[in-house]
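User: I've been trying to design a sequence by hand for this structure and keep getting stuck. Would you show me what you'd pick, starting by listing the structure so we're on the same page?

Assistant: Good idea, let's start from the same input. This is the structure you sent:
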């Protein structure tokens, strides 16, 4: 078990990473330093959202909101930079994967229904 001070440090780190994410998202919203923001996003993801970390045990509403804002703003970046950012953030990659699976399922259902209507 983790010592209470380690738990406190982990909690502070989570708040710090969220704050850094919000700052970068805000810079994208304002079109500020867009050319370098993707590199900073990838760096932040590598440091604070490692792949080997367990899937988020707790649903963090504030973090989810920040990632939703980021998803929309990624369209401001070239495709290769979008791919790099999505690939770097485990939670963002998981959400994109989940959505693609849901859309694929809905599309397959639609194709099946369309085929049966003939």
């Amino acid at each position: 078990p983790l010592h209470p001070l380690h738990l406190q440090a982990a909690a502070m780190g989570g708040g710090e990473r969220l704050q850094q994410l919000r700052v970068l998202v805000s810079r994208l919203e304002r079109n500020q330093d867009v050319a370098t923001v993707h590199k900073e996003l990838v760096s932040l993801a590598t440091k604070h959202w490692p792949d080997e970390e367990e899937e988020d045990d707790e649903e963090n509403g504030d973090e989810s909101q920040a990632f939703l804002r980021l998803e929309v703003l990624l369209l401001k970046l070239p495709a290769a930079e979008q791919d790099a950012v999505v690939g770097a953030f485990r939670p963002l990659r998981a959400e994109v994967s989940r959505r693609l699976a849901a859309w694929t399922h809905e599309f397959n259902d639609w194709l099946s229904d369309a085929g049966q209507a003939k």
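That's my pick for every position. To get oriented when you compare it with your attempt: Residues 1-12 have pLDDT under 50 and may be disordered. The longest helix spans residues 90-117.
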